[in-house]
Amino acid sequence: MATYAIGDVQGCFETLCALLDTIAFDRTRDRLWFAGDLVNRGPRSLEVLRFVKALGDRALTVLGNHDLKLLAVAHGLKTVNPQDTLTELLEAPDREGLLTWLRHRPFFHFDPALGVAMVHAGLPPQWTLEMAQNHAADLETALQGPAYLHLLKQMSHHAVGDWTQANDEWAQRAYRLHCFTHLRFCDAQGRLELKAKGPPGTQPEPYQPWFDLPRRRTANHTIVFGHWASLGPCTAPGVYALDTGCVWGGSLTALCLETRTQFSVASREVHPRA
Asked: What SS3 string covers 142-164?
């Protein structure tokens, strides 16, 4: 029995199947953790979503920004751009069941037995593990309840980087939503820099990669994350970056959580970078 954390699949179903063959995944014994962004940009988002949903309790996935975009597009809150590949999924006969299932995925997961936490993007330095769990639970309640459309609208609030001290409940949720699903760089106060998407060193001052900030309150925990295809090798202790750019012609990576062994397969799908 093994648990494998897998980086951003983004509709690359053929590569996912090749990776599962490489790790000899046994769905009767093993478990898969997906670091978010199951869908979009790759050619077979519908098949990825159907496959992961059908795994039932053998799979766990946290929500990523592309997963939330799918939900927002499906409800008319965002428009599809030329790089998106969501049409087949949105027109599928089982669309509603898939979207409902996706809307009930968590934003954060921690397994005390393995001693590993998973998030799609990152955690600001002020958050403890308990705070991350509580903030995720609040967002999940909102996303799974009658106010979920209002929560999805918060993705459009680009001034969220300055909302660390916001008193408004929905402004706070917008900030936390962006931490879980968009964070790459922030400053020591937890203010987000959401425009910089390149590797470390390309961001403006005083921002740093979230995992490199001093006095980060989750520094003593092991955290796996995705979202950052341009990051390159990550040597920070206790963090494992799993988005290795499959949808851009890179590779898809899995990490065995029991042994910390990594496995990668080259992308079977090649797509031009947007």
From this structure: HHHCCCHHHHHHHHHCHHHHHCC
Average pLDDT per run of 10 along the chain, which is 274 residues long? 97 98 96 98 96 97 97 92 93 97 98 97 97 97 93 73 70 92 95 94 96 94 97 90 96 97 92 47
Asked if the bond preceding 206 is cis, omega within 30° of 0, the reply is: yes
CA 159 to chain centre: 21
Q: Which helix (H) or strand (E) holds 263?
A: strand 262-266
- 134, two tokens: 């509580």
Whether 273 is covered by a domain: the verdict is no
Q: Specify whether the CB–CB gap between 1 and 24 falls below 8 A.
A: no
- The CATH number covering residue 179 comes to 3.60.21.10
How many structural domains comprise the chain? 1
Please tell me the pTM assigned to this model: 0.94
**In the structure encoding, which two tokens stand for residue 200, read together?**
């470390």
